[in-house]
Structures are given as structure tokens and as C-alpha cells.
Amino acid sequence: MQDLQDIARAIMAPGKGLLAADESNESADQKRLEAFGIATGEEMRREFRDLFLATPGIEEYLSGVILYKETLGQMDDKDGIPSKEVDHLLFPKLLSERGIMPGIKVDDGLDPMPDSPNETITKGLIGLSERLTEYRTTYGTTFTKWRAAIRIDGDRLPTSAALVENAKRLASYASEAQKAGMVPLLEPEVLLEGKHSRLRSRDVIETTLHALFDACRDQAVDLSSVILKTSMALSGKDTGRIDSPEDVAEDTLGALLNAVPKEVPGIVFLSGGQTPDQATDNLRAIARLAKEKNAPWPLTFSYARAFQEEALQIWMGKPENVPSAREAFINRLETVSKASLGQ
Q1: 33 DSSP 8-state letter
Q2: Which of 45, 96, 302, 326 has the most CB atoms at less than 10 Å from its CB?
Q3: Quick check: is 187 catalytic?
Q4: What radius of gyration, in Å, describes the C-alpha atoms of the chain?
Q5: Is 85 a residue whose pLDDT tops 50?
Q6: pLDDT score, position 186
Q7: Is-contact 286 253, C-beta < 8 A?
Q8: Are 108 and 124 spatial neighbours (Cβ–Cβ below 8 Å)?
Q9: What is the pLDDT of residues 123-145, one digit of tens each?
């Protein structure tokens, strides 16, 4: 079995990062396909995954892909031949054969908090150990992801109870993932929705991360074998404000330097509702500032929408548009890869 620290280092290979292709079936249908006027359903979701995962050359820019459980059992197209007619590869194997690590989202989504219904807690700890073992042995996954969602509402939210409970669950998940021989990605996403300032976002990110790593220490999680997936410090979407990349970098890196232990082997950023250009420009500014400040961990990307949006606008669910859609995807990958190096 691969050493967990080796897997973590491979995820953080310079100039490479992660494609977050782990939308639930509902999110893939509604937020990706329907949003672009594309038909929905299992087969169209498979074609949606194939559009990105089978793009030639992605191994130059991707160290791994976070998958959803449905995608583990789906197969690629080969030269446009329907998957039932020839010997195709399951998507995890397709990735592995190109040197890209397959990962898997293992939480079961969000539930309202009993005492604070405007906040959520992540479910999925029941049966987690068995699921992890199945994913590792059957599909060869090497890393996993668990997401918590942290909502800002003035000084009212997040509550300390929500932060502590989500941190405990993230730490419990991380412990189980490491026992199963996989690197855990810890994603406490501070949501973009709201009217909060960028400085409030910074403060909540920092407070959230302190709670997270306190919980990890309490549960004896090996911090040298986890990857943090975090939000950037941004003004709330409802303010209409677009922060400069330099301001985003200053506040994002400030929060991370104050809250993330040095032994963590890497940090990846989610795009979290930003446009492709915003996510690229902000990452570039963060990477440059991190070099200036000698940040103790490598930084890179774990994007979903910021990678998919341009390609989906071209594809529109039509086979004849696949080549040009893939060209747009690979171009964005290349641009973001350079941005992760501060270029």
C-alpha cells in the first residue's frame, strides 16, 4: 500500500492540482446540465464526465480527480463508440493508467442543524469505514473528500456549535480515511453567499480552521498526511463587490498562516462560485504572495465549475461539439496550472 505522505506529495506536485468532478447526481443534473440547457439523466451524466475525464493531455495538469460514487462504476467512450459495444475502462482505471490518482467524495451531504436550522452539519459517518474499504479495494482510490458548509450571516452565523460539530466530523472522517489507507481532503467550505465583507470571510476561515485542526489533534489525525481544501477570503456574493486579486491573496494567506499547521503537506483551493477568470487570477496572486512570504506548504487548485463552465457552454450535450469543448477545458487547465506557480 502506498505511503500516505507519498500520496499527499504527489497530489501537490508542482504545476498540478485536482479536478473536482464529485457533484452529486442532483447537482450534476441541475447545476451543470440543466443550467446549460442540456438533457439530464444517468447516461448524460456519464457523457458529462467523459467530456472532461477522457480529454487527451489532462495528465500534464491534474494530479488527481475527485469522483462521485456513481462515476466509479461508469465507463468512458472510445472514439464515440457507445460503451456497451466495446471493452471500455471504468473511469478510475482510465485515470490511473494516465498517472492521475482517482479520489472519491465520501460524505452523504448536508442536514440542517437541530438547534440552528440555517446552518448545516455533514452526514455520512455511519458505515463510512465499510465504504472506504470498498472504494480502496474495488476501485483503487487513493484519496477521499469530506465537505462541510459554513454559512456567514453578520455576526450571528456561524455559531460556535456548528463550527465545533463540523470540525469533529471532519476529524472523525480523516481518522477513518487514514486507517483505510487513503489521504483525506478536509473541506470546510466558507460559503460565498451573503452580504459579508472580505475581512469577515477571512476571520471566519481562520476561526473555522483553528476548530478543524484542534479537532484533528484531539482525534490523533496524522496532519502530515492530510490535504486542506479551503475557500478564498472573498466579499459575500450579495455585496456585488469584486475584490482585487491582491486583496484576496493578502487576506486568504493571512488566515492560512495564522491557522494551518506547518506539517500539513499541502493546501488546495476551491473555486466556490467564482468565474473561471476570477478563480485563476486570485490563485495566481495567492501563489505569488505565498512565495514572497515563504509559506510552509505548497498551494494549488481543486476546481469544479471554474474548469467546466467554458467547456459546457461549447458542448451543450452535442457529440459534434466535444473536440472544441475539450480544447477549451485543456486551455483553462493550462492557464490555472501556470497560475498555481504564480505565472
Answers
A1: I
A2: 302
A3: yes
A4: 19
A5: no
A6: 98
A7: yes
A8: yes
A9: 999 999 999 999 999 999 999 99
Let me know: does 36 contact 43? Beta carbons within 8 Å. no
Pull the grid cell for residue 43. 447516461
- Mean pLDDT on 251-275: 97
Catalytic one among 16, 145, 168, 229? 229
Number of domain units in the chain: 1
pLDDT at 84 over 90: no
Mean pLDDT on 87-111: 93
Helices (H), the chain: 4-11, 25-27, 42-53, 69-72, 91-96, 128-139, 160-179, 198-218, 245-259, 276-292, 305-315, 322-340
229 included as an active-site residue: yes
Measuring CA to CA, how many Å separate 181 from each of 8, 131, 132, 226?
A: 12, 13, 9, 12
Strand 227-230, strand 183-190: pairing: parallel
The CA-atom distances, in angstroms, between 17 and each of 81, 179, 306 are 30, 24, 13
Could you tell me which of 191, 187, 285, 281 has the C-alpha nearest to residue 236?
A: 191
Q: Domain residues for 243?
A: 4-340
Residue showing cell 479537532: 215
pLDDT tens-digit series, residues 267-285: 999 999 999 999 999 999 9
Residue type, 11: I
Q: Name the pTM for this structure.
A: 0.96
Q: What CATH number has the domain bearing residue 268?
A: 3.20.20.70
